[in-house]
Amino acid sequence: MEDVLTLTCQSCNYEDEVVELDGFYYCRSCGQQNLDVVDTGAEDGEGIGVGGIYLAKHKRRVYASSEAINVPFSTPKDFGSKGVKFDVYIKEIRLRYVMGLQIMIELQCEALVKEFKVTPLICGLVGPIWLRLVSKTGVFDDDWADKEFHDSHVQKEGESEGKNKLGPHHIFRSLKNRIPLVCTIVVSYLACHIAREAIMPSDMIKWAREGKLPYFSAFVEVERKMGHPTIACPISSSYMFRPQRALSVHKLESHASSLAQFIGLQLPPVNFYALAYRYLKKLSLPVEKILPYACRIYEWSMSPDLWLSLSKDYFGLPTHVSVVSVLVVAIRILYNINGYGVWEKSLSYNDSAKDSTKDPKEHKQRELDCTGLLQHLQGIYIEIADTHEYSKNLPTYLKYCKDVVFAGLEPSYGSHEEENMMENLWKHYQNEENTKPSEPGKQHNTSFNRRLMTNSHDDNFYESLSETIGKLKLDMEENRFCYIAPSVKQKQLDYVHYIRKKDKGGLSYVAHADYYILLRAFARIAYDDDIRILHIGVLNLERRLAWLEKRIGQCLHLKPSNVSCQFCSVRATDNGSGDGS
C-alpha cells in the first residue's frame, strides 16, 4: 500500500491529500505551495511522499550539495517523485490554461446569444479574434519555454535562489501575464462590437458581476468540461480560472482597444443608432421625435469619442457617454431646456408667468411639452434605479452567493451535519420570504410617484415649493453641482452653455434644475455613471459643435480669390503651341 501525505493548507485551511511536484507540495483547492513540507528525494519511489519528507516544525536542516546548486534547472529530464517529464509538465499547464480560457469565451458567447438576444454571428467572430491573440502572444512558440527559463534564472540583486526557481506557479503566472483572464470578456465584447450590437463595456461588467455572463464562476464549468487537474498541472481550476476582481468600464474599453491594436484589428465606431434607440426606449421617451434629430447631430459632428480609445487618462470618456451626450443636446434643443424654470413652475402650477409677448396658445403648448418631459424624467428616475437582480430578495441573494460568490465550495469532507444545516437554513429563508408581506417603503414610493405624475392637489401630501427645491439642491450638492435660479428673461432659441468653476481648489459645476433633471436621468441609464462625467461629455460635444459652426460660418463668408489658377494657366500654355501663335 503506497504512502499518502495529508496536510492542512496554510492559506485556505483545506485538508486533503497534497500534490507533489519539483520537490514541493501544493494544495488541491487553492494551488498554494506548502512552505513547511519539502520532498528531499532521499529515496526513490512511485507514491507521493515516499521519499524523505522535511517538515519545518521538526527544526531539521536540509543541506544541498554543491553539485546540485551548480546544475542548471533545465538540465534534469524528470521533475518530482512522479517522474513527470519536462516537456509534458510545460505542455500540460500551457494547454490547460489556454483551453480553459477558450471554454470561458464559448460560455460567454452562449450566454450572450441565449440570455441577451445577441446575434449568433458573434460565435463565428470570436474564433479568429481569439486565435490571432494566442498566436501573437507566442505562448505556443517552440522557444517560449526556453525564454521563460532564461528569464526565471536571471538572478536579481537581493533575491534568494529559491525565489527564482521555476515551478508550476511560475509557468502559470507567465501565461496569465501574457493572456489575462479578462481577455475572455474583451474578446467577447469585441465580437459584439464588430457585429454592430448595442452592447457596451458597462453591460459586460454588469452582467459579469451579476453572474449572468460566465466569468467569476466559470471555473466550475471549465473543470466539468476539462476534468480535474493532472499531476503535471498541480494548480486547481479555481486558482487558475477564477478572477480576483472586476474591471472598471473604462479599463475594459481600453483593454479592448489595446487588444485590437495588438492583433491588427480595424474597429468601426459604436453603433450610435442602436444605442441611442435603446437608451430612449429605456427612458420611455418619444423615439420618433428625438432619434432622427440626434442622428443628424451625430452625422454632423462625428465625435472621435465614439471610437474605442487607447487613452489611459482618467478623464478619457467611455464611448457610451458620448452617445448619451448627443441625446442630451438633442433633447435640450428640441424642448428648449435652457434654464427658464419650467420644473419650478410645474411644482407651483403658476400660469401667471407666461410671456405676454408671445402667442399664449403656442407658448402654453411648448411649455406643457417641456413640463411633461421633465415630470416624466423625474418620475422614471426612481423607477429605473439600476439595482442588481440578486438584491431583490433574500433567496435570490443566497442563490447568487451559492452560484457565484462561493461557487465550487462544498461542505467539509464527511460533515453531514454541516450539509444538513445548510439545507435547513435554505428552506427556512425561502419559507420566510414566501410569507413576507410586500415592503411598505416600496409601496409608498410607488404611490408617491403615481400621485406626483397625476398632479394630485392633496395639501397633506405635497411639500412646500421651497422644501422641494431644497431637496433638489441637496441632491445637486452631493454631486458637486450648484443650483442656479431660473432665468427671468426668456429668449427665443437661446442655448445656454454651462461652465465649470474653481471653488476652493476644486471644480464646481453650475446648472439649472431643468438641465440637472435631464442629465440625472440619462446618467442613471448609463448604469450609475457619475453625473459629472456625463456633464463633461455634454460640454465637450457643445464645444465641438460650436467650433464646427464657427468654421462653417467662416467658410460660407469667404469670397473667391481674383488670382487665376496657376495650374489652369500652365495647362493652357502646355496645350498651346508655345510660340504665341
Automatic annotation (TrEMBL):
InterPro entries: Rrn7_cyclin_C (IPR048538), Rrn7_cyclin_N (IPR048540), TAF1B/Rrn7 (IPR033599). Its main location: nucleus. It comes from the Eukaryota. GO terms for cellular component: RNA polymerase I core factor complex. It holds the Pfam family Rrn7_cyclin_N. It is found in: Nucleus, Nucleolus. Residues 254-344 form the Rrn7/TAF1B C-terminal cyclin domain. This is TATA box-binding protein associated factor RNA polymerase I subunit. It comes from Trifolium pratense (Red clover). Keywords: DNA-binding, Metal-binding, Nucleus, Transcription, Transcription regulation, Zinc, Zinc-finger. One of its GO terms (molecular function) is zinc ion binding. The keyword Metal-binding applies. The keyword Zinc applies. Residues 101-219 form the Rrn7/TAF1B N-terminal cyclin domain. Belongs to the RRN7/TAF1B family. One of its GO terms (biological process) is nucleolar large rRNA transcription by RNA polymerase I.
